[in-house]
Design brief:
The structure is a homodimer of 358-residue chains. Chain A is of the alpha/beta class. The first copy, chain A, folds into 2 domains: 22-187, Rossmann fold; 192-290, Orthogonal Bundle (6-phosphogluconate dehydrogenase C-terminal fold). The first copy, chain A, has 13 helices and 11 strands. In chain A, the strands form 3 sheets. In chain A, strands 2-1-3-4-5 form a 5-stranded parallel β-sheet, sandwiched between helices. A 3-stranded mixed β-sheet of chain A has the order 6-7-8. The first copy, chain A, has a 3-stranded antiparallel β-sheet with strand order 9-11-10. The longest helix of chain A has 28 residues, at 189-216. At the A-B interface, helix 7, helix 8, helix 9, helix 10 and helix 11 of A face helix 7, helix 8, helix 9, helix 10 and helix 11 of B.
Chain lengths: 358, 358
């Protein structure tokens, strides 16, 4: 167990394996359905709920318990994954909190974290709500598109908080590492939202702008006929359901607009170099961009082990965790033994500009 | 044969198969090397030349004749593929024309067509130079990355011209259909360059801007740690060698800047809707973009057969061919029989906005 008394009476011990843990998934679409199927395959006792009766019926055909009400689905659970659409979370959160046991860990999979974290604070749920975001997705939607392997090995952001919430964070980290083989990225909610703006939200805007402009182009059909790798890749997420994309962008509006300004500034530099025929500058700007792209595939990691007191206010632990995620690192292990918690961390090696001159 | 007297004395007949045709590839990098290996595998008599002695040596180890000089490589050939870097083409073209037989068909694989077509006109080579552009590529470079299957089934633009050039166009079309199973897209050089600006060149700018902005971001390492599908896809071509990207953009400068303006206008609309919190407008703009993306994967084609007199000024034939490509269609067959040339064309069905209200 996490050793700090935040777990509910029924929550099994961390490190002792998560088989038999009682989990619920609320909202069994693409992501929620994939979470559900994975938990089921790992031997957890799972229930699923979705507002759509046909989806609940489909879940039952997958040998998953799918009660008629969300209250039944989360009653007596050790952990609940909130996987409904982003705008529904602030309302679902207190409802699920009220219907689940007081020690039940709550988490979500929404693409922005600051707003839902604020909602959790308003409802006094910071001791057991751990904001989460698995970095995976597809253009498809619905339980029929879900797969137990969709999130395997994914980067999965969890937002640790000091105080009793740290225990819930440690326990959930252990579950994600064991069941999903996740790379758990600990981040502050605000840092996540800024990073996600560049890693996901702005790319959706660029894909939409490119595909949208082509739709309006006189030579639209010729453009589509000539579309090879760069256009196909650059517009793939334009195939994402439009409502989902709009919700994601609106949920992180200020940060998306700020990071978009950085991207359009770089685009302006490229266009200026092109307009003035400055081959050297144009090449240098593309080479700089290529270096970032290379880091994506060729990154090396060093492994570090760090431990903290299992009890106390956890302030040092949380600060270290947030710094780890901001530096591009992730957790590969979390073990509570007696009065210590030990983390295994993987950090970029060589370190990025936050640790060293670049 | 094409039946209009433009073929050189040694060029084998169209329709009789292309095995035994004498072909040369000048510039055996990624694209040229792939062309060369494919032609060799199809039973053509091929020679290759590259300015780099190590590349010539590598070609010889692939059982390809690779003479020391470009003049030797193209002497006595029926067709020469010019596959060197874009800025070298205007100089290479007259040199290869002088060293090859007068009836030898010349073509290139450069990513822009208007400039090289103008160079061919200046050198009086319009009767046998057919501007070409296979729509394929990769982030890699060099003969070692080349593969005989790289261009299999690719969209391959050829620019037909009236007069004696039509014969060279027909013959080369037959070769590409037979040897590469290409979808030959006939287009005017200017229309190609406008369509390619949106299908390829602007996507390279967007990928560069996104990757470049991330490289400069404070949370760079966290962004890379979170990068899932949308960022990976959206920056893939930022890994292309920077000099090659710069050459491609500079070779089509005016059109790239014009089409980029259309994309940034759409991006501004998206940003405005986001800034004002207009969920309906933001969703509608993304849905419009998604419709273009859907056309990319779900397009149906109707087959049409059309024939023209084999001789004459070919003005109707060339006009029909250019309209076919502008409408998103491609050729699947080209046969010269007695005094007629018959094309099999595949056209989008239902047609796009050029043929019908959209």
């Amino acid at each position: 167990m996490t050793g700090d008394g935040t777990a509910g009476p029924g929550r099994p011990e961390a490190g002792g394996g998560y088989a038999g843990v009682r989990a619920a998934v609320v909202g069994t679409g693409l992501i929620g359905g994939s979470v559900l199927l994975r938990l089921r395959d790992a031997g957890l006792d799972v229930t699923g709920w979705d507002p759509d009766p046909a989806t609940r019926e489909h879940a039952r055909r997958q040998w998953v318990t799918a009660p008629e009400t969300v209250e039944e689905a989360v009653a007596g659970r050790d952990v609940v994954f909130l996987c409904g659409p982003l705008p529904t979370l602030p309302a679902t959160l207190p409802l699920v909190a009220a219907a689940s046991p007081p020690g039940c860990v709550l988490t979500d999979v929404g693409s922005t974290k600051a707003e839902v974290a604020a909602a959790a604070a308003r409802h006094g749920l910071l001791d057991r709500f751990v904001p989460g975001h698995p970095m995976a997705g597809a253009e498809s939607a619905g339980l029929t598109a879900a797969a137990p392997t969709l999130l395997d090995g994914a980067a999965w952001v969890l937002c640790p908080a000091a105080g009793p919430a740290t225990g819930a964070f440690r326990w959930l980290t252990g579950l994600l590492l064991e069941v999903f083989r996740a790379r758990v990225v600990p981040m502050a909610a605000a840092a996540h939202d800024t990073a996600a703006a560049l890693a996901s939200h702005v790319p959706h805007l660029l894909a939409g702008a490119l595909a949208g402009a082509v739709r309006r182009a006189t030579l639209r059909d010729a453009v589509l006929a000539l579309a090879a790798g760069s256009f196909r890749d650059g517009t793939r997420v334009a195939g994402t359901p439009a409502v989902r994309t709009a919700n994601m962008l609106l949920g992180n509006r200020e940060r998306v607009l700020r990071e978009l300004a950085g991207v359009t500034a770089y685009l302006d530099e490229l266009a200026d170099a092109l307009r003035s025929g400055d081959a050297e500058r144009l090449t240098a700007l593309h080479a700089e961009a290529g270096a970032a792209r290379e880091l994506l595939s060729g990154r090396a990691y060093a492994t570090r082990v760090r431990d903290f007191p299992a009890s106390g206010d956890h302030a040092d632990e949380v600060a270290w965790l947030r710094e780890l995620g901001a530096a591009g690192g992730h957790l590969g292990g979390c073990h509570v033994r007696a009065d210590r918690v030990a983390y295994t961390a993987h950090v970029p090696d060589p370190p990025g500009p936050r640790q060293a001159a670049d």
